[in-house]
Amino acid sequence: MSDANDHVKAWIGREETIRDSLGLTPARLLAATLDDRQARFETGDAVPVCWQWLYFLPAAPQGEIGPDGHPKRGGFLPPVELPQRMFAGAEITVHAPLRFGLPAERRGIIRDVTPKTGKSGPLVFVTVDYEFHQDGRHCLTERQSIVYKDAGRPQAAGGEAGATPSFGASWSRRINPDPVLLFRFSALTFNSHRIHYDRPYATEVEHYPDLVVHGPLIAVCLADLLRVEAGRPLSFFKFRAEAPLFVTAPFEVVGRAAGEAGAELKAVGPGGVTAMSASAIFA
């Protein structure tokens, strides 16, 4: 095990640079996917926080796709042997907004690879730092946390969503994560992880009760709740995944003010369980 750990730790410091033109079409399609009929994006407008995930997409050839639908490991990300991969959270700092329609660059570096042992068995945490540059400016800093783990026992899907009354939400929205929504988001982010569209794979191989809602999709819904309801740009957004959500039931995204300059948010799944928590600071 130590030899395997040493092998994946050798990926610390590995770098990747991707350039993109930040065209308007992906943003307009995401707005349609989120059923936002008011959004009007034009060249030069600020890219909403989390919408940078529509861009800088790694273009792995079909012959380099692994059995889970992700690119085979050992490229930019380390060759971790554990079968399940989860986008566990991120911190995004906005120094200056990215702008639609202008060339930009994302520079990534593997900051840390940490093997651990949890209640469910071995885990590997991978920390990836990204810097986004445009027009000579450092616009965004994003730190992502990715977790690899063993496929667990089959999980229960749960029932209806319900927000905990004690949260005192000022803003809320109900999301129906049907297979069409998941498919459209997978297509927009070029995410071919099979747990989001291949039900037999999700249930029989990774032992989920049904198709899994993307962690980034939940985070986009949380940040977008602030964009639509609060109407204020963000200087910081942080989220952490706490439990998976599935296509078997709707979920709620809820938020409330935290002082004059911030907000707290949750994605609430069946039984009032918090699936994702988040915090934000307004610019």
Automatic annotation (TrEMBL):
InterPro entries: HotDog_dom_sf, Mitochondrial_HTD2. GO terms for molecular function: (3R)-hydroxyacyl-[acyl-carrier-protein] dehydratase activity. It comes from the Bacteria. This is Acyl-CoA dehydrogenase. The lineage of its organism: Bacteria, Pseudomonadati, Pseudomonadota, Alphaproteobacteria, Hyphomicrobiales.
